[in-house]
Write a structure and sequence with these properties.
The protein is of the alpha+beta class. The chain contains 14 helices and 8 strands. A hairpin with a 3-residue loop joins strand 6 and strand 7. Helix 2 runs antiparallel to helix 8.
Length: about 375
Amino acid sequence: MARAAGAPAATPRRRRYNAAVSGAASFAERLLDWHRGAGRHDLPWQHPRTPYRVWISEIMLQQTQVATVLPYYQRFLARFPDVHALAAAEADEVLHLWSGLGYYARARNLQRAAQVIRDQHGGAFPEDFAAVAALPGIGRSTAGAILALACGQRHPILDGNARRVLARHFAVGGAAGEHQAQARLWQLAEACTPGHRLADYTQAIMDLGATVCTRRHPACTRCPLALTCRAWRAGRPTQYPQPRRRAVRGRRELFFIVALNERNEVLLEQRPPRGIWGGLWSLPEFATASAARRFALDALPAARAEPQPLDTLEHGFTHFDLLIRPLLVRCRRTVTASPTLCWVNIRAPGRIGLPAPVAALLEGLSRQTLFDAA
């Protein structure tokens, strides 16, 4: 089409801008078309898709896959169907229902946020972006996802899946955490987010990253964006985004005292609110076997015989592996209960938060006859 008389000629910068706008529109439409037939439409938080239900799912899905989250989500919502129930719950019960899901600060922040919503927003989940982003445990991307999915508001997201899709499609160099790369990806997220079907688009880009544009083995031939994906056209999809430089994976060792009394009760100690397994109930922990034995002698004066080594456990964290050496001590109930110490029945520890390896250890021991009353 000829340029209209008197219209200014398009500059190279204007042509690049027009091409970017056109490309972003095409990006969104192809993604939406793909989502109609291949996206996920039957996730439990989609029916009904309320801000509360979406919020719980988004927090659980941080660094955790959908398949892992599903049973936890169902149990959590059955017990805490609304903000008021979650805000009023005992922290131990919240952690109990989170046990095994990991990253326990998420659960503590979730309840703190519920209390803020109850006390400052009348129990109604806020629909203002700044108010949502200010809640404990919620950042820019999570706030945008909640409001886009539940309220149809236009906010870009940049969770791990969206970041990977954008970094590959536009060949954004640099590690995902680098400031320059992050700023560029947010620009692209903003440009690609359409002005309509916001919930569908937000779900679509997350679904594509989770099921097609995966980290290690992307299914590029099934991707609706493949023909314009710069990383695929260059034959280097897995090089985007560039991985962070990983430190050498560490290995740590600790010793647990499994103090079992004549009532088949085991002694538990509540961990500090911050750090690994923050706020959960665990077995008394020591850095060395000698320190564990000293505790048995000093705090369990009725201990019977030398601590007995049990099978070693291994547990993996994000950056290190933990080697757990449990030591069984048969004793009388001599330690006085305190806010951070308690005796629980090994066969029915109650609704308290337990680290996954501790829960597995207690479950295994509960099936054995360990205490000899003679």
